[in-house]
Amino acid sequence: MPNLLVKPQGAHGRVSHVTPESAGWTYVGFDLHRMKPGEIVAAETGSREVCLVWVSGKGKATAGGADFGVLGERMSPFEGAPHALYIPANSNWSVTAETDLELAVCSAPGGGDYKAKAIPPGTHPQLHRGKGSNIRHVHNIMPEDDNSAHSLLVVEVITPNGNTSSYPSHKHDRDDLPNESLLEETYYHRLNPPQGFAFQRVYTDDRSLDEAMAVEDGDVTLVPRGYHPCATIHGYDLYYLNVMAGPKRVWKFHNAREHEWLLK
Ligand SMILES: O=C(O)C[C@@H](O)[C@H](O)C(=O)CO
Hints:
The protein is mainly beta and 264 residues long. The protein has one helix at 20-23, and strands at 5-6, 13-18, 29-35, 40-44, 48-56, 59-63, 66-71, 83-87, 92-97, 101-109, 117-119, 127-129, 136-142, 153-159, 164-165, 170-171, 173-176, 180-182, 184-192, 197-203, 210-216, 220-223, 230-232, 237-245, 254-255.
């Protein structure tokens, strides 16, 4: 099985590159580009649909021949909501950086009759989940109820320092609706301030998979199956961007029974 902790390669250009082949799975792809003003990244989508997320910085976008203008507002993922752009399969896109730009390219198998669409900040209200030291702040970017994609689900989460998230432990690794859906998932992690770290455990009930990872700024983690809670340490907030996809565009998770009391 591939290593579940993917470190960035350098500080400029395409620093993270996760494909279904490299991850040893079927659906989710994730790239992270760090661009300088004037640099261009462009691609054909082919059989996959794509959601571009302006993690930080500004850039001019075109998709499928349409001009979407300059997108991006925030200069840090810890400040406000993101701009994003959905592009269906069999199309193309380009982004020209106007400032230093941290651009995420989230992808999954395409299909259906979907149109390229900008997703500006405020499209989905910010959610606050959990209680006490399990409070975290959620910006949905492409949630399942928006009916605007074939298989991609995209969300970002801020976990304040000292808190947990993706917790109590839950999983989504069985195609058994209405009880549970099967979704692969990537996490793109940022820390504030950046010298910090956090932890993520990926594990199954039988512990045939059980990895505890120290996560640093810019790391990507892979969740092929199993529970995947995160924990931050005092002084360091954690941002992550999740990409999920599977055979059905439904996020139906199963809570670890032994921790469900925390929800009562
Ligand atoms: O609520 C959270 O803490 C975020 C998680 O739900 C995260 O998006 C995830 O684990 C999705 O399965």
